[in-house]
Amino acid sequence: MADISQKENSMGTQKMNRLILFTGIPLMVSLFINSLYNFVDSMFVSQVSEKALTALSLAAPVQLLVSALGLGNAVGLNAVISRALGRKEAGEVRRAADAAIFIAFCSWVVITVLCLLFVKRYFAWQSGGDEEIAAYGVQYLAVCMLFSLGQMGQWVFDRFVIASGRSGLFLFTLSAASVTNLILDPIFIFGLFGVPRLETLGAAIATVIGQTVGMFAGIVINRRWNREIPFGFTCRPDKRSVVEILRVGFPSTLVQILTSFVGILMNSILITFSSTAVAVYGICIRINGISTVGSHGITNGLIPIVAYNYGAADRKRVAGAVRWSLLYGALFYLFFFAVLELAPAWVLRIFEASDYMLAIGIPALRILALAWLVAVPALVISAGLQGLSMGMSSMILTMARQAVLPLVFAGIFSRFGDLELLWTGFILAEFLGIPLTVWFWRKGYGQLESSTSCCSCWRKVLEALERS
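User: That's the sequence. What structure does it adopt?
Assistant: Structure tokens below.
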């Protein structure tokens, strides 16, 4: 109980402008480190060949599909455990933790089956008949999927420390994972120190080793320094906890799955222009992962804060958390926005860009950078809705912005044969998402007001019973 009271002193009472930074900054650093996986892979692989880089770009949507299972589990357990801590229900915390580990294991089994059934067929379809691209892609993606247990486990153990308000701890797990990947990437890709040159296969091996190291680091850190959330593995988890985690996290999983299919379909459209266009899109996805770490760190940190104060029926703190997150989310992106607008060629040269890639990539980066800036309010509100257990509303909002509208515009604009027009569709999608964002937040905040009033009434009844 002492640990839970300590949690309340930070999540329930600390000044919101400081709490958002205290929770968000470690997450920003961690997301930055995590983003280095794919960024570094692409950077090194670009030195192998443009076709190898294209293969990684084609693999990216499927990797997003894989991480969707881990993300949904992480979002669900984050909200459920934070809410249980806010209510001081230690038994519910343990049941949710065990359920999350079970879900992670089941997710890995599903990913393995999907790999064995579909990876070769996927690249035969997406590579445009280029056997070299297909061979690079199958080698890379098969290893990443078959050995994804480390990734699934790392999602869980990282979120345990986030949910308990100790976000800084899991910097150690991600640092261990990413540093391992960074060291091993050039060794396995280029064949250093007597290791054979493995190219894209080497990039995959370095990635899964890093993820496994991160998972084991997370287990050690939680066992030693985060005993507030006890956990174990069981084949018979609490059904209610499993259902609640899936209920909260499924919308995030579904959105990312749909986003993954959008990426697949976008690549299908872009390959009709050239394989270089596919490579450029893949690079933009990698750069997005790096440049938006500030916004995503803030929003990921916002979820447990909103969930905790929602559980404590504190409407004022929920509103304050969203306001500060909007401000910080925009501020932390502005530096990257300036770099992408003013020096896109310099960024692209990190990936050994040819003249043709620069001609395509420079306008793409500038246009997409603006789209990512417009997206900040929707990112914050989506996270706030997840914290309020309104996962379905968050899913609809995100799906509209990141899946339905971009794909509709891409399908229409691709008919004109103009790549710059196609990229502009992403900006239009974000602008059209603004009124939907405002509507969903007003609905969610109104629901919170009703819930708070109800909780206040119940408190008065309980206090009267205690006095009598």
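Residues 419-467 form the longest helix (49 residues).
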